[in-house]
Amino acid sequence: MQSIADVIMDPWVLTWAVSLLTAQIIFQIILGFISSPFRAKPGAAAHQIVALVPFCYAAYHGVALWLFDADIASMHVGSATDRLYGQQEGAWMLIRFMLGFQVYDLLATGLEASLRKLEHLAHHTATLLTALSAASSGGPFFCYYAVFFFGFTELSSVPLAFVDLFRQFPTLAKQFPATNELNRTVFAVSFLVIRVLWFPYVMITKWWPDLIEAWSTPSGIRCSMPAYCWMFFSSVFLTFLQLFWGYKILRVVLKGNLGGNNAVATKHEAD
What number of other Cβ atoms are within 10 A of residue 33's Cβ? Predict the structure, then answer.
């Protein structure tokens, strides 16, 4: 039976955490020396460049598993027990990957002043604890949901990395206005569809009913009670964050700033 300490020291978790932190430091040093728009805020630029790798990794594996994996497909139509406690090796890799990624992201966000926002720190902390709960003693648990929430939803994060890069460096947006506009559009559409519509849909139709069924069934809760309670709380909190960010994106779109024609107003609205 694997303890939380064992999971944190898992080679796959450490590989992601250490590799991303190392890449962050290297890119930050390089960007701080070379003459480019990134020199003003090398830490922020390094973060967006490095984060693109785990975003792409999670999105690729999440889409492949959620849409095409036979085990996940059987869980789609299976029981609450199947979805909460069914095992899937790819999902277990995503859980450990997310642990390593969030360790890096929490540290990078906390250390870089331009990224240090309360809502972002809260999001990274909540996601880290959620991954720990899924990997808690006796697990892994919630593999089915890890595929969606730790993998598939990261599709919207890929264009976000570019959007944030352009937003942090307005001169870059002026140099590549068409690319900036395309990224804003792709991000807004993908976030609204995946995070604002699909994310709460899965919560309402599967995740929360499955948790309630586990609570009401004898021996239905196989993970620790703290892990179960955290999963319920974090799902509400993280859903709220998606809707909150979605509201801010819609506000930008409705004010006509999606294309980046008013960079200052867009920054104030989306930040």
Answer: 10
Closest CA to 198 of 253, 270, 148, 143: 148
What letter represents residue 201's amino acid? Y
Q: Which amino acid is at 41?
A: K
- The per-residue pLDDT for range 50-79, each reduced to its tens digit, is 999 999 999 999 999 999 999 999 999 999
Token digits for 183? 């990224």
**Which pLDDT tens digit goes with each residue over 178-198?**
999 999 999 999 999 999 999
Q: Is 86 left (phi over 0), alpha (psi -120 to 50) or beta?
A: beta
Close Cβ partners of 12 (under 8 Å, ≥ 6 residues apart): 93, 96, 97, 100
Q: Which pLDDT belongs to residue 254?
A: 85
Shortest CA distance to 260 belongs to which of 148, 190, 166, 193? 166
Residue 264: the pLDDT is: 35
Burial of 220 (0-12, 13-18, 19+ CB in 10 A): middle
Which residues of the chain form beta strands (DSSP E)? none
Question: Which residue shows structure tokens 């867009």?
Answer: 266
Q: At what angle do helices 263-270 and 225-254 cross, to 10 degrees?
A: 160
All residue ranges of the chain with pLDDT < 70 are 1-3, 257-271
Q: Of 52, 22, 27, 51, which Cα lies nearest the Cα of 41?
A: 27
State how far the Cα of 117 lies from the Cα of 111, in Å rounded to an integer. 11
96, 10 Cβ separation under 8 angstroms: yes
